Request: fold
Amino acid sequence: RNPNPVANFPQVMGADQAWEEGVTGKRITVAVVDTGIAPMDWNSGRIIARYDALDHGPHKKDPNGHGTMMASLIGNSDRDENGFMGIAPKVRFVDVRVLGSDGSGNYADILEGLNWILQNKDRYNIRVVNLSLLAAVNSPYWADPINQAVEALWDAGIVVVAAAGNGGPDPMT
Reply:
């Protein structure tokens, strides 16, 4: 483990300029739809709710690590020499676990998690949903149930951030 980690992406994205204006994610809740969020020093007290669509119970933590990594990119409040290590260091999190320990999942569990978010958006002030998921295209976008659930979140005023993929032109890109 690196005792002095450094994160450059917040500055590359201009987050440091937003921080100077006082924009840190305070009073905003991000629902991370993934493998879970493990409790860490940087997110202590900031995971305000958990929902487990896999029916493993509300106390199952992130057995994979991907959800915790995504939450860290979004809102890690640790600092390095450049500033915060996450984009929005004061956001609160709602952990919506829809993927298993191997990182895989199914439509039913993802839809269950997205529907739970829609039903609980006001209770937890969920303003952003992060979906770092990968799936093959099986139908036109207007007929895809996940796309329909995302549209319902969008129509409810929630910003939905979705992964565009991990496939770069070369290995490790």
